[in-house]
């Protein structure tokens, strides 16, 4: 990429105001053909908003966009598609009721005598998805496939649509290493073909692996654009946060945990999870590792009673307990921060404050409302402690950025002061700064004696805070790593081979 | 609690303005509209009639507001009215006292609510279909009780509920205002209101947060059944007879309309019972305009449709948003507006969470 | 078989089983008469139900159709009585009007961002109100062209008459199926039902699709009105009250989810037949009082919903272990 | 031979209708007829479906109480093709006369006229403002009874209809609308009420009483149908006149049918039932007692 080539897309002075928040303040972005451009920034910096303004999903309040030197002003995503801009928005935005093939071709179905040709559509879909190493039946509804498959379909659709520009908003958040590799291969091919690619992520490794330049946003403003070949990770982080990320040298998590809090014996559910045994002590963080679809989320849901087990038993402090619903679990002071925050976590139209106290209130009962002053105090304390960025506690939580929603959900469970907290992908979509904070938070909770079960795809993170790591494969526990054995290398090997013995 | 009162007033301000406008229309067609006399031991006047005749719709829309807040709908309330009225009438016909009759009718209404609630919350049938079953069958059940006749009664206690007065005020007015206040306080002074809103917005999240959504949903339908039964008793008492075929016929639509005119979203979530009640008064005022205008009855529906369309258009998110923008630009741009009060107009311009 | 076809198969099997059972009890039901009656008597209902299927697939609802049928009938009757315009021209005129009416409702729903339930409820009041204004009397239609159309039938052995209107309904269903499954418009309808915001982000033209859907429903209600006017040779402003609920019930019995995005036009056809069968059975029985008729209809409706629910549960429970909440 | 007869009834929307159903069933039972009953829930399309199903079952005759006058040609033709006689109850249809055997009905216009004439006589030239409670908008009784009443008072300028609004044939609407009449015109300005059916009159009586006026004296009340409750009101002097619409339409119809089937005597096309006028002079208490068991 050289400076004298003409930009494919240049946006200047893009502004977007929300009541109580200036999401974008005169943002400029220039994309050159054949470059992969990273868009970086903290949660709520305005990345997704910028993308939506560029592609006509939002109406921008100011600014102009030029595509190949011509002024464009897309008022709908359809229009931007016509201009050759393909987009994957944050959170999978596909239609679960349509088939995979229909999702891929929506709006540009192959026609035969004016009628949609299902046969050709499926043949094409099979071919396209084959290019991503996906061999699935394209006539099945999208909802029957895992989030990862859906994400790949979304990417494939956007790639097919993008003649000039491809925009990917956190496409790798729910992908595995292998799939990320596959995606990068595709991105490199597109780059060869001269497309401009915008890549948003919170994984800096990935940024440095695939991107050429990076534009960093902070509080809705561009704070700088860098050639990545000439910058370092610390540079970029500094630019994002406006401060240095203090890298606390992590002590190995101590092995001196307290009494056994919980014991699951032969707990499982047919067709969902093989029966397993698991004991968790106070002051212990048990990590759950595995590939996509290996059953981590299922384990979490089962233990929380969201999907009741059909066999086995659970013991809490040497007393047998029944776990048939989340309410049972909450009564026993469990908490679960779910993986899919949009559908299982936030209550979108309720205020941030109400979302934070929701679980606490539900436990208190219908007729004992929490005292208003106490609610405010509680909410404000957590907003401060977790550094949730918001205009007001009264704003509906769906207006928060993804990362801030995640923090508010954490606050919801912390407010119930649980003995046992299950976190499913707690750092998905969270920026580097907050990432470090959440890891520190987990450490802090453990030190206070709480028992935690954390499912995560980020092995480094698991290694950092786990006192023990359980590895899952094909919906079955395959092995457990302790103490010094806990390392990224060992986990990867265990996932691949299924046995620690063979690793060691 | 002045803060809460202020918030309520702000919430219902548009409804109050519309009510005022429709009442003004009444005055235009009938200048004496606001005259209230004390005559024959009771308050007597058109405004009293609006409040009195609005009672069934008002009662229905109390429960309907809650059901709609959970993302549901209850089409069966009209039929439940008929069943309750028939039950009360047949009980007094069999020699029971009015208290027994009232309690019996309410119990039957609650039972109907339980049926709907179980269908919706346990069997997970979509509310509109689940309640359609009782809407169709309910009138049959009511007629089964009355054997197809208009079951008349003379029990003064029961009649008092519909046609009587307390200190000159018609009893139905006191009943709906009382029940409305009771349930409003019941949901707002406890956590119920918020929890109902939560399951209406995202049931999956709410369940995972430990809300007993199943029981809460059933309770909401129970309340609706209760309200419908009370409305049914009032309507029967008003004419001293249970008319199984016509009592509450199509009234479910009026109730839903009242809830929507009250600014509540059919997609569930945030609700205001007070606003719905004002909505019911608005609908009754529209009916009053039609009656007082003296136009031939073939114009009734057209007039009603046009007035309602006008009201709905004024209330639509797009128009509200446009008004909000107008106001904001009048107050000069860039002024910080509190996010909460502006959340409704936002719905259009932003990607909503569903 | 695709998993999504299951509700359709369930509906068809339910109909066949019910038909066989009924015929077992009343052998006269296994006649061309009854079959022909099912088609003719439900023709207008079937046609509106096709439109309703599209509306419901898109996640909406159209409560105005019953009134639009009545309005169409009265309009035709009045215009054929008072002017010398040819019925075909009147048909075109009234179809244009009902399409415009539907499109207007669609436009309000989209541009003013109002729920379909309420907009079409207002539409329901308005259409019937307009019918009253045209004429409160029932107005007979005596044009000879109507006699010509009515005399177009094929008399099958056994006395069944397969009439033109039944054929119009069948044609509507076939066209409806093609439009739903083989055109971009149809795919957009399904997309809208899957989630309007997502569909918007995926580039589905919301405005034209929404307006198109309600225009289609309005137009088909107009067509049903024409068929109804052929059926009764009259226009009557009190006719077809509550037909919207029958149509919705038929669509739902046919396996389409009211929450939108999933279902089949063909399923609606069998939903209509099932509803027709219920009525025929009740008449053949002939012992039910007025009130038991209502209770039995409600009970059978419930039975069908339950049957469908059970079958769907039995087959999907294993596939999707995670919690799944039916959206209303 | 045992006859099988299909009866397509409109529905059970009013007490009178329920009584008609009861009486029809009684009459059929009396004659040993197997009556197949079909309730159409007030929908013409259901009635057509029912008739077609009756034809498919090959019944011996069909009784039809048509919900509306128009729209029966096609289905009656089918019945005729199948050689099944059709007898109409309480309303004739706009169809060629050879499509049905006979129609047993009252004359709706005549009923209204009787009511009008009664009022003319009662007022004897005194000026009188009349309010009218119409039936369901668009229904033929509402249209015809309105027309008949207007004919009845034609030429008597002392009688003036000052307000006319629909009460949907129901008690509760009758009461509501009367309330608004009383307010809009002032109770003293109204001298008589004409209601298209008794149920609305019963509702209106309550409204009048609640307004502190005396029904039957301050406001004269005339209505149609002669259901038990209006006789009770008349016995108490709260209503003044009613015109009977007999629920026994099936009796004469079945008589005619039996004669036709046994001896081939063709009945007249129209068997008119009596529209008897009841006033305060009759023993209304006795009429009430006689009628109350009929399922009104
Ligand atoms: N509809 C809205 N109303 C009010 N504020 C909003 C709305 N949408 C977004 N915001 C605010 O705009 C800011 C930018 O949000 P955006 O989603 O663009 O952040 P982001 O950079 O994509 O963050 P993340 O990395 O968490 O996805 C946030 O502060 C958010 O709270
Ligand atoms: N073969 C399959 N057919 C249908 N659905 C599947 C299949 N495999 C997985 N799924 C779906 O994928 C989900 C499991 O994947 P998921 O990615 O949630 O598991 P996980 O182990 O928790 O991984 P992660 O937490 O990384 O997402 C389940 O909800 C399941 O419905
Ligand atoms: Mg984002
Ligand atoms: Mg998971």
- What value does the Rg of chain B take, in angstroms? 21 Å
Low-confidence stretches of chain A: 500-504
CATH architecture of chain B, please? Orthogonal Bundle
Distance between the termini of chain B: 34 Å
Cα end-to-end separation of chain A = 46 Å
**Number of continuous helical runs of chain A:** 18
The profile of the biggest β sheet of chain A is: 6 strands, mixed
Oligomeric state, counting identical vs distinct chains: heterotetramer
Overall tally of domains of chain A: 3
Helix content of chain A: 25-40%
What does this structure look like?
With 504 residues, chain A is of the alpha/beta class. Chain A has three domains: 9-97 and 141-241, Rossmann fold (3-Layer(aba) Sandwich); 249-333 and 419-504, Rossmann fold, CATH 3.40.50; 349-417, no CATH class. Helix content of chain A is 35%, strand content 25%. Chain A is built from 18 helices and 22 strands. Chain A has a six-stranded mixed sheet with strand order 6-9-10-3-11-12, sandwiched between helices. In chain A, a hairpin with a 2-residue loop joins strand 21 (468-473) and strand 22 (476-482). The longest helix of chain A has 16 residues, at 177-192. Chain B is mainly alpha-helical. Chain B has a single domain, classed as ABC transporter involved in vitamin B12 uptake, BtuC (Orthogonal Bundle), CATH 1.10.3470. Chain B has helices at residues 2-29, 46-53, 55-69, 77-93, 98-122, 127-146, 156-163, 171-188, 192-201, 203-208, 213-238, 251-261, 273-293, 300-315, 317-330, 343-349, and strands at residues 37-39, 42-44, 150-152, 165-166, 169-170, 241-243. In chain B, strands 1-2 form a two-stranded antiparallel sheet. A two-stranded antiparallel ribbon of chain B has the order 3-6. The radius of gyration of chain B is 21 Å and the shape is globular. Chain B starts with a helix and ends in a 5-residue tail after the last helix. Chain C has 328 residues and is mainly alpha-helical. Helices cover 72% and strands 3% of the residues of chain C. Chain C has helices spanning 6-25, 32-41, 43-57, 65-82, 87-111, 116-134, 144-150, 164-182, 184-194, 196-201, 206-232, 243-253, 265-285, 290-316; strands spanning 139-140, 153-155, 161-163, 234-235. In chain C, the strands form two sheets. A two-stranded antiparallel ribbon of chain C has the order 1-4. In chain C, helix 3 (43-57) runs antiparallel to helix 11 and helix 9 crosses helix 11 (206-232). Chain D contains ten helices and twelve strands. In chain D, the strands form two sheets. In chain D, strands 2-1-3-4-5-11 form a six-stranded parallel sheet, sandwiched between helices. In chain D, helix 6 packs across helix 7 (198-210). The longest helix of chain D has 16 residues, at 15-30. The chains are: A alpha/beta (504), B mainly alpha (354), C mainly alpha (328), D alpha/beta (296). Chains in contact: A-B, A-C, B-C, B-D, C-D. Chains B and C meet through helix 6, helix 10, helix 12, helix 14 and helix 15 of B and helix 6, helix 12 and helix 14 of C. The complex binds adenosine-5'-triphosphate (ATP) (2 copies) and magnesium ion (2 copies). Chain C: Pfam families: BPD_transp_2. Chain C: Its main location: membrane. Chain C: InterPro entries: ABC_transp_permease. Chain C: The chain crosses the membrane at residues 34-56, 63-80, 86-109, 116-135, 162-180, 201-228, 290-311. Chain C: This is Galactofuranose ABC transporter, permease protein YjfF.
């Amino acid at each position: 990429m050289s400076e004298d080539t003409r930009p494919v897309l240049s946006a200047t002075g893009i502004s977007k105001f929300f009541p109580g928040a200036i999401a974008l303040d005169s943002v400029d972005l220039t994309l050159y053909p054949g470059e992969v451009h990273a868009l970086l920034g903290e949660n709520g910096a305005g990345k997704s908003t910028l993308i939506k303004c560029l592609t006509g999903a939002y109406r921008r309040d100011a600014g102009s966009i030029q595509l190949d030197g011509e002024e464009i002003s897309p008022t709908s995503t359809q229009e931007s598609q016509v201009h050759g801009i393909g987009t994957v928005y944050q959170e999978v935005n596909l239609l679960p009721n349509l088939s995979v093939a229909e999702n891929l071709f929506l709006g540009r179905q192959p026609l035969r005598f004016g009628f949609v040709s299902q046969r050709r559509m499926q043949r094409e879909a099979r071919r396209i998805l084959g290019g991503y190493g996906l061999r699935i039946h394209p006539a099945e509804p999208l909802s029957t496939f895992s989030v990862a498959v859906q994400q790949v379909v979304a990417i494939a659709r956007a790639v097919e649509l993008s003649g000039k520009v491809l925009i990917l908003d956190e496409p790798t958040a729910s992908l595995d290493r292998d799939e990320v590799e596959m995606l990068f291969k595709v991105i490199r091919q597109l780059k060869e073909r001269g497309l401009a690619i915008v890549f948003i992520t919170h994984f800096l490794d990935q940024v440095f692996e695939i991107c050429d330049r990076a534009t960093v946003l902070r509080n809705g403003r561009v704070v700088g654009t860098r050639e990545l070949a000439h910058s370092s990770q610390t540079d970029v982080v500094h630019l994002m946060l406006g401060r240095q990320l203090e890298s606390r040298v992590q002590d190995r998590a101590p092995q001196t945990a307290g009494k056994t809090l919980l014991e699951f014996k032969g707990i499982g559910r047919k067709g969902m999870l093989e029966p397993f045994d698991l004991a968790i002590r106070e002051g212990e963080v048990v990590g759950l590792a595995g590939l996509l679809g290996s059953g981590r989320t299922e384990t979490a849901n089962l233990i929380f009673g969201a999907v009741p087990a059909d066999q086995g038993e659970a013991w809490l402090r040497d007393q047998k307990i029944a776990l048939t619903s989340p309410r049972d679990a909450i009564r026993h002071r469990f908490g679960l921060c779910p993986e899919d925050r949009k559908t299982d976590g936030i209550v979108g139209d309720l205020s941030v404050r109400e979302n934070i106290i929701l679980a606490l209130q539900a436990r208190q009962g219908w007729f004992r409302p929490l005292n208003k002053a106490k609610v405010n105090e509680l909410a404000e304390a957590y907003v401060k402690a977790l550094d949730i960025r918001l205009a007001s506690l009264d704003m509906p939580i769906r207006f928060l950025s993804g990362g801030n929603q995640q923090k508010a959900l954490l606050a919801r469970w912390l407010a119930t002061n649980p003995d046992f907290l299950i976190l499913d992908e707690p750092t998905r979509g969270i920026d580097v700064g907050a990432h470090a904070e959440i890891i520190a938070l987990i450490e802090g909770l453990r030190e206070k004696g709480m028992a935690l079960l954390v499912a995560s795809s980020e092995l480094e993170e698991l290694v950092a805070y786990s006192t023990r790591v359980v590895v899952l494969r094909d919906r079955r526990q395959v092995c457990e790593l302790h103490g010094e054995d806990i390392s990224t290398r060992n986990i990867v090997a265990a996932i691949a081979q299924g046995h620690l013995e063979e690793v060691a | 609690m002045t803060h809460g009162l202020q918030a309520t007033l702000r919430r219902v301000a548009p409804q109050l303005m519309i009510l005022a406008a429709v009442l003004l229309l009444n005055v235009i067609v009938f200048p004496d509209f606001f005259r209230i006399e004390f005559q024959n031991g009771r308050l007597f006047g058109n405004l009293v009639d609006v409040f009195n005749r609005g009672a069934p719709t008002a009662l229905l829309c109390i429960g309907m507001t809650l059901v709609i807040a959970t993302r549901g709908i209850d089409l069966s309330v009209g039929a439940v009215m008929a069943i309750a009225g028939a039950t009360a009438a047949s009980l007094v016909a069999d020699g029971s006292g009015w208290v027994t009759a009232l309690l019996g009718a309410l119990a039957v209404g609650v039972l109907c609510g339980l049926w709907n609630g179980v269908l919706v919350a346990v069997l997970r049938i979509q509310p509109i279909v689940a309640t359609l079953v009782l809407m169709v069958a309910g009138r049959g059940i009511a007629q089964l009780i009355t054997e197809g006749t208009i079951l008349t009664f003379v029990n003064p206690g029961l009649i008092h509920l519909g046609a009587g007065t307390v200190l000159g005020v018609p009893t139905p007015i006191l009943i709906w205002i009382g029940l409305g206040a009771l349930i409003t306080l019941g949901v707002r002074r406890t956590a119920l209101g918020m929890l109902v809103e939560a399951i209406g917005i995202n049931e999956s999240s709410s369940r995972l947060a430990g809300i007993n959504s199943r029981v809460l949903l059933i309770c909401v339908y129970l309340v609706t059944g209760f309200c419908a039964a009370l409305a049914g008793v009032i309507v029967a008492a008003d004419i001293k007879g249970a008319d199984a075929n016509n009592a509450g016929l199509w009234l479910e639509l009026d109730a839903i309309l009242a809830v929507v005119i009250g600014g509540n979203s059919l997609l569930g979530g945030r609700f205001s019972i007070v606003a719905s009640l004002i909505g019911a008064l608005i609908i009754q005022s529209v009916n009053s305009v039609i009656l007082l205008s003296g136009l031939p009855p073939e114009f009734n529906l057209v007039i009603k449709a046009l007035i309602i369309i006008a009201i709905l258009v004024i209330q639509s998110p797009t128009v509200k948003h446009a008004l909000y923008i107008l106001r904001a630009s009048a107050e000069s741009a860039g002024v910080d507006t509190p996010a909460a009060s502006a959340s409704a107009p936002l719905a259009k311009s932003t990607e909503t969470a569903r | 078989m695709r998993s999504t076809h299951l509700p359709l198969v369930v509906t068809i099997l339910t109909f066949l089983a019910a038909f066989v059972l009924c015929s077992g009890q009343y052998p006269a039901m296994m006649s061309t008469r009854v079959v022909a009656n099912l088609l003719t008597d439900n023709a207008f209902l079937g046609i509106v139900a096709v439109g309703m299927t599209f509306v419901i697939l898109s996640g909406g609802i159209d409560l105005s159709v019953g009134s639009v049928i009545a309005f169409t009938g009265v309009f035709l009757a009045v215009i054929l009585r008072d002017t010398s315009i040819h019925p075909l021209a009147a048909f075109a005129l009234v179809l244009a009007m009902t399409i415009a009416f539907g499109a207007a409702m669609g436009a309000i729903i989209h541009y003013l961002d109002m729920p379909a339930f309420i907009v079409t409820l207002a539409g329901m009041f308005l259409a019937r109100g307009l019918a009253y204004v045209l004429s409160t009397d029932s107005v007979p239609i005596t044009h000879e062209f109507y006699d010509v159309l009515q005399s177009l039938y094929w008399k099958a052995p056994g006395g069944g008459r397969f009439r033109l209107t039944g054929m119009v309904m069948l044609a509507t269903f076939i066209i409806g199926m093609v439009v739903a499954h083989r055109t971009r418009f149809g795919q957009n309808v399904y997309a809208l039902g899957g989630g309007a915001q997502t569909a918007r982000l995926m580039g589905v033209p919301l405005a034209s699709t929404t307006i198109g859907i309600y225009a289609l429903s309005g137009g088909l209600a107009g067509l049903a009105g024409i068929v109804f006017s052929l059926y009764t040779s009259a226009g009557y402003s009190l006719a077809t009250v509550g037909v919207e609920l029958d149509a919705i019930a038929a669509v739902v019995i046919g396996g389409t989810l009211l929450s939108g995005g999933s279902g089949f036009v063909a399923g609606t056809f069998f939903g209509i037949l099932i509803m027709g069968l219920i009525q025929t059975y009740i008449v053949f029985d002939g012992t039910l009082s007025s009130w038991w008729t209502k209770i039995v209809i409600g009970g059978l409706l419930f039975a069908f919903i339950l049957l469908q629910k059970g079958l769907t549960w039995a087959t999907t429970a294993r596939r999707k272990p995670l919690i799944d909440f039916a959206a209303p | 031979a045992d006859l099988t007869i299909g009866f397509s009834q409109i529905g059970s929307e009013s007490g009178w209708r329920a009584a008609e159903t009861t009486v029809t069933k009684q009459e059929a039972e009396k004659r040993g007829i197997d009556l197949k009953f079909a309730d159409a829930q007030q929908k013409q399309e259901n009635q057509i479906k029912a008739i077609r199903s009756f034809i498919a079952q090959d019944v011996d005759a069909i009784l039809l109480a048509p919900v509306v006058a128009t729209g029966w040609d096609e289905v009656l033709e089918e019945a005729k093709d199948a050689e099944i006689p059709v007898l109409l109850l309480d309303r004739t249809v706009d169809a060629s006369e050879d499509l049905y055997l006979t129609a047993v009905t009252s004359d709706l216009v005549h009923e209204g006229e009787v009511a009008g004439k009664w009022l003319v006589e009662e007022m004897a030239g005194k000026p009188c403002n009349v309010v009218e409670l119409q039936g369901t908008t668009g229904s033929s009784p509402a249209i015809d009874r309105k027309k008949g009443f207007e004919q009845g008072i034609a030429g008597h300028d002392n009688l003036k209809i000052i307000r006319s609004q629909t009460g949907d044939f129901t008690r509760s609407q009758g009461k509501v609308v009367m309330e608004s009449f009383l307010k809009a015109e002032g109770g003293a300005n109204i001298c008589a009420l004409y209601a298209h059916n008794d149920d609305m009159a019963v509702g209106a009586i309550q409204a009048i009483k609640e307004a502190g006026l005396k029904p039957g004296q301050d406001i004269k009340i005339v209505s149609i149908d002669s259901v038990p409750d209006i006789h009770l009101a008349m016995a108490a002097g709260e209503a003044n006149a009613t015109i009977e619409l007999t629920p026994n339409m099936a009796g004469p119809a079945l008589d005619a049918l039996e004669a036709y089937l046994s001896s081939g005597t063709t009945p007249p096309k129209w068997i008119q039932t009596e529209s008897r006028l009841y006033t305060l002079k009759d023993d209304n208490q006795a009429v009430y007692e006689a009628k109350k068991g009929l399922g009104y």
